[in-house]
Amino acid sequence: MDTGGEIAPDVRSILNAARDRSGGGGRVAVDARSLPEAFDTAEADGRVPVIAEVKPTSPTTAGERRDDPVELAEQMVDGGAAALSVLTEPEHFGGSPEVLRRVREAVDVPVLRKDFVLYEEQLDVVEADVILLIVRFLEEEGTDDLEDLLAAARERGFQVLVETHTEREVEQAIDAGADIVGVNNRDLAELEVDLSTFEDVAPTVPENVTLIAESGLETPDDVTRMRTAGADACLIGSAIMAGDVRERTRQFTTSEETQS
């Protein structure tokens, strides 16, 4: 487990690029679709709550997908995804705010903006239902305070997914007022994935907080493992993007049914 060591060069490059990106032209105001309610709806329908990620490429995956991201998003929803995650980081992940805008207009599920927000002005880029804030990145950069950014995001109508990797980061997130917490199984020092990270950290998350398992989920068995450990939902990107997106999403959203 990453305990706060040196950040990997690829991650450092992402942070350097994020530091230099500005916000949009004006303050964003969002009428957000509820992420917890979307998870509840999936459960009621007999589906495993999954956030499927539209990810053209990344530093930790080989190759890229050139399909229309809107078509990919629609296939994910057809496959049962409770919500979507869309990369808006351009340099390392091939994303853009315009892609998120198009996807959100095309679907009726909550859409998470996956990017590396360090300053309040970077919230004002595009309407999304959920914004990602990463405890380690904010701590590393010493930029805007997590509690202040969380409040600023909520003032604009965003829900906020606060990403953690250690028990200490979970404590920081809860102290800042987070009510949706992600535990990333990938450390930022070696970029290695260990699913036991979630299992170790999850018990420290209060029951009234929506808990999401992130990174490294390759099979339906992995999803079942995370759900058994307490995940309310799982965020899955590369494993879905690597094949038939609709069918791969369906495999993950029906994993508990097929395991029973």
Comma- or semicolon-separated keywords:
single chain, alpha/beta, TIM Barrel, eight-stranded parallel barrel, 13 helices, 41% helix
Can you walk me through this structure?
It is a single chain. The protein has 260 residues and is of the alpha/beta class. It has one domain: Aldolase class I (TIM Barrel, Alpha-Beta Barrel). It has 13 helices and 8 strands. It has helices spanning 9-20, 35-44, 69-78, 90-93, 97-106, 135-141, 146-155, 167-176, 196-201, 220-228, 238-241, 245-253, 255-259; strands at 50-54, 83-87, 111-114, 130-134, 159-164, 180-184, 210-214, 233-236. The protein has an 8-stranded parallel barrel with strand order 1-2-3-4-5-6-7-8, surrounded by 8 helices. Strand 5, helix 8 and strand 6 (180-184) form a beta-alpha-beta unit. The longest helix has 12 residues, at 9-20. The model has no long low-confidence stretch (mean pLDDT 90).
